[in-house]
């Protein structure tokens, strides 16, 4: 079966579907008509897409934590706590690592051991093992809309169970849940598997049920230049829209420089609208998600509050539709529910205080936006060229050729030739462009900005600079400057 | 001296089910820049992959990274596998977040040396430190 | 003795001095020559003025907490903790409220009771009662420079003891430590008493010993428009410079709107340079201090971290020379040392992360700066006119006439006719101008901006709007909007 | 009911060496708006000033604010002074940041009630709460 960016034929979809639902016993619980009847009873105020759309119209930013534990009752308790004490606007259900690798037997062992030792032995909620009824218990036990967040290259069964289970939003994508999350899953396979997930969402949409879809924005979370994550977000938006997805939330992970971060969020929305409209997807609604700092955190909780708060402030100033919240326990591993709630409360305080600030405007911001747009367009146009107009084909070929390339990704299907580094002001630039299809004008901007930093530090730009930048936040700085 | 260093071959990888790729890339770059021949087997590498790569490339040292806390389980028996494969005297270095939770580094280091590693590095070690140690362990005199 | 902005005659100074040093037994410990010999041995790296000047050159922001307890050893322990665990760049010694009112007998009772109950019964360090030797113990026990912070209308004895005690910076001023801190101290008296304090600092300067002086910027800390605090900061700068003060740190309390706050800090430094240079004080060094939110705080500590962090971010983006740090216990009263250190750590994390951001630039920022400058100049020029060129005389007459007026001040020498309120974007504007000497052009800008807010809330601007704004931050908002 | 409330006279002030004027202004505004007769003696008010103002105006209640942590020292003996002045049964309310440092509110409240106050309010209390309590304590039925 040749990969192409075309809507999956229904027969073909059903054929795959039979196989998928048979791959684990809980697959048998899914009855599509019954699921649609169930979802259609969930009112607008508890639907993810609707709440995001309203926030976008009001120009406010919603706060959403990450959270998931092994057992159903404990997971419900956790979400309720984050909703009431934490004042979360949107809720998550983070899936455990075994489920992400389709290792349901090991997930089951984790569930059993969690029951016997009385604490969660899994780093998330194993939704496939728990099945449809348990998922419905979860979403019914809270007032806010709940999204499934994971990191699964082949998420077809999880998608079936999640949607039948009443979740109204779903993270992931064929590129963003492969390249940073796997070592040797071919892109053709993950894109095709995510076409299935998107087709299912598209079918729900056809039946009048809005399901929000969110490509995973931050990728490897380490010095990813906006043009890279923007390109992938837009590729996945186009792939999803082709399958009938209507509500898209595109993401970006905080780099740390205010101007670049605001420019990134604003340009992401504008670029997405541009490409979706160009390819004829007129009725999709694009919202944005800003991820608080995804790199290493300070061990100290007060300092972690500082990092969290700066992320919240940037999200508010960029007027992102939602912000994904870190916790003061970030450096220590999986947080307690109290620490999780603390992160949300600090974030909400800032979001509320800053909701009245006007949108930033300056010459620098405009220039940064235009640069990001020019870079992203250069990549996307080259991929379209590679795919002879087919963006799915172009994506696979483009990754092979390294014209789209994610820094520090584990996948062998990623060229891994880029070298990002911060400029003097902390914005992420490129020291080595690998095979990115940038013109000399763009390259010259990067070279100049990195040279400016090199000059003030009295050293030639090199990989040592990249290393210093990666270590910087752990040392309380943004730029790994030599002074 | 640059000529001599080029003869040293290092096998580099992240052991176990660990997908942390950032540090691996940093090390590959830093060791290559320093003049070593680097055979990078990447993330999610098994003990067998480390040993096979070392045998095939006639490597001088194996450098194991582990960032996700399961290093203790994943590294146990690596020296024995090297002996079985007939490269029992290869240098074994290990570094990263080697254990779950915050533990006293002296105790952790002792544990890994007892496992047959020649050197162990705590979290936050800069690549230059390992480069200096390699040069010293292989008898290259340092210029400064 | 007629008040005038002229350097105090030395004979006159010495005459007052005898009386002052006799007013409480510890005054006898002060020997000016011995004090100068002591101060001259304090090296540059432990001098406040030097550290500020270096920070200004480097474009970085230093963090300073507030702290003070009744007993010497406990106070030393507190400062050491804030220096090592809290990573404070600059240290304080906050003076208790009885000492601020020259009520040394009551301060003594507080000391005695603190000793017997084993916890501080005073809200600060009673430096006068403890005397010169104890003060030297304090400054010698830490590495960072230490400033005395208080709120004392007549601080002459405290100044003598503080400077002889080895403190290298001193907060206060004849207006800023009277109008917000006293009920019925005449301005003539407090200005004259602060001329004495400034003259003493000036004398140390003549002897080669640099002592930093800081007028108290935030005043009542409640919806104070920048032009009001700027006018008073510049008045006190001129009064201090005339007495020979060379190192001046001018302050401003966070209002909450980013553009207004950055514009305030930048315009404060520019205006001060303008007026100091105009009146011939060429060799003064002006640095700035930004006070994190001085109004009501949320009870919840995580939310308080949000408020603190936003203050830190604004200070860094405004490139203030130092920031005065709040604590997550702010809503509960005087903090534990742990809470105090937490506030500094969150602040420092943000200052370090943001030190590389470029100075903000935008049309809005330029306009806001120009507005603040026009308002401040209008007030200052009217005061000069009232004083027939003498700024001390002009200040007294100006307060009488209400052409300079501090919102919510307790002093009966303050007109108290201003009504500030936030505009739609959270900037502090004026609802009632009292007798401020603003032209119609300035007034129209305020009216328009407040009308814009009133319109979106569907209510006429009124005192209820002011009350809503005062409570807003405690409720997690900046603007007390009715929605 | 508005008529009846107007007959209640409140003495309002900030005790001791405390100069916090903002809350005092808001309380004056809120109590006046609520229909009480407010005698505001302002900031830095001594115990004597509270008592004298209450005697002179034939007040029904004294409302003491303390925001700077010295409330414990400053408020001690106020009930006794009221008794001496012949107004021993006047209602005494107190509120604010009453003690130095973070202490358990129940303990702080108990301390102030033991001192002879009828009600004590923690930091962050909204004026409406005191207004409601006044109406209740003086037997006015609330319309809610």
Automatic annotation (TrEMBL), chains A, C:
<keyword id="KW-0413">Isomerase</keyword>
<dbReference type="InterPro" id="IPR006396">
    <property type="entry name" value="Glu_mut_E"/>
</dbReference>
<feature type="binding site">
    <location>
        <position position="100"/>
    </location>
    <ligand>
        <name>L-glutamate</name>
    </ligand>
</feature>
<dbReference type="GO" id="GO:0019670">
    <property type="term" value="P:anaerobic L-glutamate catabolic process"/>
</dbReference>
<comment type="pathway">
    <text>Amino-acid degradation; L-glutamate degradation via mesaconate pathway; acetate and pyruvate from L-glutamate: step 1/4.</text>
</comment>
<dbReference type="GO" id="GO:0019553">
    <property type="term" value="P:L-glutamate catabolic process via L-citramalate"/>
</dbReference>
<comment type="subunit">
    <text>Heterotetramer composed of 2 epsilon subunits (GlmE) and 2 sigma subunits (GlmS). GlmE exists as a homodimer and GlmS as a monomer.</text>
</comment>
<feature type="binding site">
    <location>
        <position position="123"/>
    </location>
    <ligand>
        <name>adenosylcob(III)alamin</name>
    </ligand>
</feature>
<comment type="function">
    <text>Catalyzes the carbon skeleton rearrangement of L-glutamate to L-threo-3-methylaspartate ((2S,3S)-3-methylaspartate).</text>
</comment>
<feature type="binding site">
    <location>
        <position position="171"/>
    </location>
    <ligand>
        <name>L-glutamate</name>
    </ligand>
</feature>
<keyword id="KW-0846">Cobalamin</keyword>
<feature type="binding site">
    <location>
        <position position="326"/>
    </location>
    <ligand>
        <name>adenosylcob(III)alamin</name>
    </ligand>
</feature>
<protein>
    <recommendedName>
        <fullName>Glutamate mutase epsilon subunit</fullName>
        <ecNumber>5.4.99.1</ecNumber>
    </recommendedName>
</protein>
<dbReference type="GO" id="GO:0050097">
    <property type="term" value="F:methylaspartate mutase activity"/>
</dbReference>
<feature type="binding site">
    <location>
        <position position="181"/>
    </location>
    <ligand>
        <name>L-glutamate</name>
    </ligand>
</feature>
<feature type="binding site">
    <location>
        <position position="180"/>
    </location>
    <ligand>
        <name>adenosylcob(III)alamin</name>
    </ligand>
</feature>
<dbReference type="InterPro" id="IPR016176">
    <property type="entry name" value="Cbl-dep_enz_cat"/>
</dbReference>
<dbReference type="GO" id="GO:0031419">
    <property type="term" value="F:cobalamin binding"/>
</dbReference>
<feature type="binding site">
    <location>
        <begin position="149"/>
        <end position="150"/>
    </location>
    <ligand>
        <name>L-glutamate</name>
    </ligand>
</feature>
<feature type="binding site">
    <location>
        <position position="297"/>
    </location>
    <ligand>
        <name>adenosylcob(III)alamin</name>
    </ligand>
</feature>
<dbReference type="Pfam" id="PF06368">
    <property type="entry name" value="Met_asp_mut_E"/>
</dbReference>
<feature type="binding site">
    <location>
        <position position="177"/>
    </location>
    <ligand>
        <name>L-glutamate</name>
    </ligand>
</feature>
UniProtKB/TrEMBL annotation, chains B, D:
<keyword id="KW-0170">Cobalt</keyword>
<comment type="similarity">
    <text>Belongs to the methylaspartate mutase GlmS subunit family.</text>
</comment>
<dbReference type="InterPro" id="IPR006158">
    <property type="entry name" value="Cobalamin-bd"/>
</dbReference>
<feature type="binding site">
    <location>
        <begin position="97"/>
        <end position="101"/>
    </location>
    <ligand>
        <name>adenosylcob(III)alamin</name>
    </ligand>
</feature>
<comment type="subunit">
    <text>Heterotetramer composed of 2 epsilon subunits (GlmE) and 2 sigma subunits (GlmS). GlmE exists as a homodimer and GlmS as a monomer.</text>
</comment>
<feature type="binding site" description="axial binding residue">
    <location>
        <position position="20"/>
    </location>
    <ligand>
        <name>adenosylcob(III)alamin</name>
    </ligand>
</feature>
<comment type="function">
    <text>Catalyzes the carbon skeleton rearrangement of L-glutamate to L-threo-3-methylaspartate ((2S,3S)-3-methylaspartate).</text>
</comment>
<dbReference type="GO" id="GO:0031419">
    <property type="term" value="F:cobalamin binding"/>
</dbReference>
<keyword id="KW-0413">Isomerase</keyword>
<comment type="pathway">
    <text>Amino-acid degradation; L-glutamate degradation via mesaconate pathway; acetate and pyruvate from L-glutamate: step 1/4.</text>
</comment>
<dbReference type="GO" id="GO:0046872">
    <property type="term" value="F:metal ion binding"/>
</dbReference>
<feature type="binding site">
    <location>
        <begin position="65"/>
        <end position="67"/>
    </location>
    <ligand>
        <name>adenosylcob(III)alamin</name>
    </ligand>
</feature>
<dbReference type="InterPro" id="IPR006394">
    <property type="entry name" value="GlmS"/>
</dbReference>
<keyword id="KW-0846">Cobalamin</keyword>
<dbReference type="GO" id="GO:0019553">
    <property type="term" value="P:L-glutamate catabolic process via L-citramalate"/>
</dbReference>
<dbReference type="GO" id="GO:0019670">
    <property type="term" value="P:anaerobic L-glutamate catabolic process"/>
</dbReference>
<keyword id="KW-0479">Metal-binding</keyword>
<feature type="binding site">
    <location>
        <begin position="17"/>
        <end position="21"/>
    </location>
    <ligand>
        <name>adenosylcob(III)alamin</name>
    </ligand>
</feature>
<protein>
    <recommendedName>
        <fullName>Glutamate mutase sigma subunit</fullName>
        <ecNumber>5.4.99.1</ecNumber>
    </recommendedName>
</protein>
<dbReference type="InterPro" id="IPR036724">
    <property type="entry name" value="Cobalamin-bd_sf"/>
</dbReference>
<dbReference type="Pfam" id="PF02310">
    <property type="entry name" value="B12-binding"/>
</dbReference>
<dbReference type="GO" id="GO:0050097">
    <property type="term" value="F:methylaspartate mutase activity"/>
</dbReference>
């Amino acid at each position: 079966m040749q990969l192409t960016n075309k809507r999956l034929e229904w027969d073909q979809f059903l054929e795959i579907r039979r196989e998928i639902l048979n791959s684990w016993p809980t697959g048998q619980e899914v009855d599509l008509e019954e699921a649609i009847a169930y979802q259609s009873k969930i009112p607008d105020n508890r639907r993810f897409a609707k709440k995001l759309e309203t926030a976008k119209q009001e120009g406010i930013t919603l706060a959403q934590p990450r959270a998931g534990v092994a057992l159903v009752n404990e997971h419900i308790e956790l979400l309720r706590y984050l909703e009431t004490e934490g004042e979360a606007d949107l809720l998550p259900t983070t899936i455990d690592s075994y489920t992400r690798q389709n290792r349901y037997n090991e997930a089951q062992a984790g569930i059993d051991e969690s029951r016997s030792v009385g604490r969660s032995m899994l780093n998330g909620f194993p939704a496939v093992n728990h099945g449809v009824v348990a998922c419905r218990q979860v979403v019914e036990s809270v007032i806010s809309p709940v999204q499934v967040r994971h990191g699964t290259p082949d998420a077809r069964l999880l998608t079936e169970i999640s949607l039948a289970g009443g979740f109204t939003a779903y993270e992931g994508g064929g590129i963003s849940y492969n390249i940073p999350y796997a070592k040797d899953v071919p892109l053709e396979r993950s894109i095709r598997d995510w076409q299935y997930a998107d087709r299912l969402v598209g079918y729900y949409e056809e039946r009048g049920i809005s399901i929000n879809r969110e490509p995973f924005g931050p990728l490897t979370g380490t010095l990813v230049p906006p043009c890279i994550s923007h390109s992938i977000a837009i590729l996945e938006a186009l792939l999803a829209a082709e399958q009938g997805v209507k509500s898209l939330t595109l993401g970006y992970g905080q780099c740390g420089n205010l101007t670049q971060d605001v420019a990134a969020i604003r340009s992401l929305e504008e670029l997405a609208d541009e490409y979706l409209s160009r390819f004829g997807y007129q009725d999709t609604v694009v919202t944005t998600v800003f991820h608080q700092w995804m790199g290493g955190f300070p061990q100290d909780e007060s300092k972690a509050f500082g990092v969290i708060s700066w992320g919240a402030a940037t999200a508010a100033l960029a007027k992102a539709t939602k912000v994904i919240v870190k916790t003061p326990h970030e450096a220590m591993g999986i947080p307690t529910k109290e620490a999780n709630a603390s992160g949300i409360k600090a974030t909400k305080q800032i979001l509320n205080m800053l909701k009245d600030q006007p949108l930033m405007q300056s010459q620098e911001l405009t220039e940064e936006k235009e640069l990001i747009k020019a870079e992203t367009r250069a990549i996307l146009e080259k991929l379209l060229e590679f795919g002879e107009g087919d963006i799915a084909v172009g994506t696979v070929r483009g990754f092979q050729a390294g014209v789209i390339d994610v820094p520090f990704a584990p996948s062998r299907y990623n060229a891994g030739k880029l070298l990002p580094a911060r400029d003097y002001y902390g914005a992420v630039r490129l020291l080595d462009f690998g095979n990115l299809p940038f013109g000399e004008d763009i390259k010259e901007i990067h070279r100049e900005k990195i040279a400016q930093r090199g000059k003030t530090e009295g050293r030639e730009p090199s990989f040592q600079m990249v290393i210093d930048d990666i270590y910087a936040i752990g040392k309380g700085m943004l730029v790994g400057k030599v002074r | 001296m640059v000529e001599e260093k080029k003869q040293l071959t290092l096998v580099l990888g992240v052991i176990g089910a660990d997908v942390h790729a950032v540090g691996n890339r940093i090390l590959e770059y830093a060791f290559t820049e320093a003049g070593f021949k680097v055979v990078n087997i990447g993330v999610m590498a098994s003990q067998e992959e480390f040993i096979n790569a070392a045998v095939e490339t006639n490597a001088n040292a194996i450098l194991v990274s582990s960032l996700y806390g399961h290093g203790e389980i994943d590294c146990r028996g690596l020296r024995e596998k090297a002996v079985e494969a007939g490269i029992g005297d290869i240098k074994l270095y290990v570094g990263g977040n080697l254990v779950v939770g915050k533990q006293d580094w002296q105790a952790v280091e002792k544990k890994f040396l007892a496992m047959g590693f020649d050197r162990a590095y705590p979290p936050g070690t800069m690549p230059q430190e390992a480069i200096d140690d390699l040069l010293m362990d292989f008898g290259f005199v340092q210029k400064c």
